[in-house]
Design goal:
Blueprint (H helix, E strand, L loop, with lengths): L6 H31 L24 H5 L19 H16 L9 H8 L4 H16 L10 E2 L5 E3 H17 L3 H18 L11 E3 L6 E3 L4 H17 L3 H20 L3 E3 L5 E6 L9 H17 L3 H16 L2 H4 L5 E3 L2 E3 L2 H18 L2 H14 L5 H11 L6 H6 L23 E2 L2 E2 L37 E2 L2 H20 L3 E5 L3 H13 L3 E5 L2 H10 L4 E5 L8 H5 L1 H14 L10 E6 L14 H12 L3 E4 L12
Parallel strand pairs: 8-9, 12-13, 12-14, 14-15, 15-16
Antiparallel strand pairs: 1-11, 2-3, 3-4, 5-6, 7-8, 9-10
Helix pairs in contact: 1-3, 5-17, 6-7, 6-8, 6-17, 7-9, 8-9, 8-10, 8-13, 9-10, 10-11, 10-13, 13-14, 13-15, 14-15, 15-17
Amino acid sequence: MVNVVNVDNLVNSLVILFHHAEIRANAMMRLHVRNHRRGRLRPVRQNHPRSRGWRDRHGRSPKHAAVGGTGSSGSATPTRTFRRPATARAIFFLGVLLVSSGFAATDYASVADRRVEAASLTEEEKAAWFEQHVLAEFSSPDCRLVAKLRTDGPDIRDIQTTAHFLAAISMKYGVLPTPETAQLALEIIEDIIAADALDGLDGRLSAYCDITDGLPKPGGTLTANGHTQLFFGYVTAWRMIHDPRIRETIQSHVTLIAQRYIDDGFILKAPSGHALPYSDVRATRWQASRSRRLDSLVFQETALLFVDDETIREHILQLQKKAVRAGYLGSIKRLHVSFLNVKLPSHATDWLNVLRLFTLAQASGSPEYRIALSKLYRTQRKEMNPLFNSMSAIISGSASAATNILLDTFPLTLNNRPVYNRDVPRRIVPRLVKSEWFVEARDPLPIYRRQLRAHNWKANPYAITAEPVSESTFRYSGVDYLLAYWMHRYAQIERIQEQQPAALVVDDRKLERDAITRSLETQGYTVVQTATVEEAKAILLKRPITQLVTDLDLSRNGTGLRGRKAGLELLQWVREGLDNGDARLATLREVTLHSTLFNSDDPWGRLLPRSRRRICRTAEDMGFTVQPKTVLTRVTPGAE
């Protein structure tokens, strides 16, 4: 079968093959010269019919060797003429032949196309797009379990990816609480429990479900770190959504899982009775793996948070006491080692450790876990990982300003096509991660320059794709973007609660929000942004806001005249709340309606459409300020 190759792929393949051939040729040439200097050249048969251009180990041609070893000048200096090895030339021309026939074509992703695609939507628009993408293509209304990836093969739904999606939806509810979001979270939890019931509701979960034929079939068994990710989703839903149905459902399922741990002697087992790999969560001094120690602690704290059964709690408390005596709390304070160019552990393990510590801090609130997370985050700060930044901000408030930069570079088309980054500045000396050397960039790459994965935040952000991969038929859901985005949004709101004065900026245009935010931050405000009136109302009811700055025209989030009047509707809602003495709005000191329109009192106001001037006058009659976006004045908090 011959693949269809376009011009871009042909050029990329030729460049790559030539690059590798040149590297090999140069290396062999250096070896050839070095061996000649040391007198190690292997002699080749002089009279071989294809020995043309041959030199013996003294650098003499066959002709010169036959007359006694002198050159044409009669000197004893050997002739040092070297040719590039035929192997490198063969590699290059063979590659050209294969590419031209279509067999060696590697489908490399276009960095330029991905860059444009990443900039085509704002962050909130991407979040809405990916959520719809997950619900429509990677799950279904009758089964909310999410596929890790899509191929041309069977429909496989993954429990761990579903747990990440549950955490993302729960964080969304923490930012924008709506009944629809809570209902979706409940459906996800119920479908996870339904997957547990496929082989008997006993707390032993399958790792995935195959629903290709319409009937779900369990596959694999969830290991300890898979349970950790499930607990992460459950704890996040518990903290964010105060719905009795969700809490009761989570409690009942975690109770079953805890009983399964106890029945297995804290060594998770497959249905056949064999112990699962990496699933020994017993508390012993001989447990050298810090990952297993963290998994054990996550199970303990999660079970103690959810389980009410006294018998089960007693077993877990005994396990916890053994863990404390075995020094588990001390061992988690140093989870990352980096010396010169050696890094331990891998990025995938770092990602899981951050998630484990975040879950522990959320489940127990103990300072030991917050301190351990802060220490681990400091070792990862240079990676500019949006998920790490957001988790750290929620727990300790030490967020990085680079989160938005990376989220903005996230493309919409997610597949496993490799990206060729030959023009990226590279590290002079690569790092040794575990037992492998990686070709790395000097700085973290934008997401559109990375070879995408099912969960991008656990991959090496410096890794440069240099080798072809399997057929690029994989498609990923974007759950990793949703999780990082909603955690970041929630972290922004959480910081407002700690710092005053706080301002809320409402605008459907990101550039306008950012400009207003910079103006307010120079005046000492902590700012949170939103693009919709519904989300703005949720924030005002949940967080203490000192100043509200909203746009008049929110057409992207409304249709027709409703979009034009969205900002005015928000002001009317605020006025009704203040008149009714709503305590949740008591901290509000100033509300500003900003617009590209001029103030109606300005001489230029006569140039405005009559309907716009009427809206401005209506807002002023209600006691609100109408002014250009660039003229924002600070009002002292607490002033009447």
